[in-house]
Amino acid sequence: MILGALAAMAQTKVKRLLAYSSIGHVGYICIGLSCGTIEGIQSLLIGIFIYASMTIDAFAIVLALRQTRVKYIADLGALAKTNPILAITFSMTMFSYAGIPPLAGFCSKFYLFFAALGCGAYFLALVGVVTSVIGCFYYIRLVKRMFFDKPRTWILYEPMDREKSLLLAMTSSFITSSFPYPSPLFDLTHQMALSSYL
């Protein structure tokens, strides 16, 4: 978690930032594994489902942007003005990565840290909270770049194809609905945790 948070802060390329933040998210998921309880396994499964949907969402956007040769964070400056829907979707995904409610990322981290506190892993929960706060810096920096900074060069972004658009619609709806309506995901992961624990 510490390595992922600190390494991601220094990145200037979008894909590298997401890659290093993935290291941190694997650390969060391992908190649930380290508990060794049903609650820990369930929080791990919730984390995996939510993290997978956020990652699919983020990399679908990054792959769509690479068609217009967007590599660096600084290249995102014109996105909100030329493609506001994509910018809002990407911002929502970054806020979810950061663990800001009412998005799915907050739900994931809440269950993981709650499971850590339940099994007495107070230090792991503390490290998770601190690295989440550090992570907010570079996720919100992306959002700031898209909406408030002037672009170095104006880039005309190509429209996304239908398959990626449908994928983004499904993952984005999951990210926004998991916190207000957690029962389906909670019931599914509870059954999976019980079957794997017994």
UniProtKB/TrEMBL annotation:
Entry superkingdom: Eukaryota
Localization, UniProt: Membrane
UniProt keyword annotations, A-Z: Membrane, NAD, Translocase, Transmembrane, Transmembrane helix, Transport
TM region positions: 17-38, 44-65, 85-104, 110-140
Pfam families: Proton_antipo_M
Residue ranges annotated for the NADH:quinone oxidoreductase/Mrp antiporter transmembrane domain, each copy included: 1-135
Annotated membrane topology: Multi-pass membrane protein
GO CC, one annotated term: membrane
PANTHER family: NADH DEHYDROGENASE
Protein name: NADH:quinone oxidoreductase/Mrp antiporter transmembrane domain-containing protein
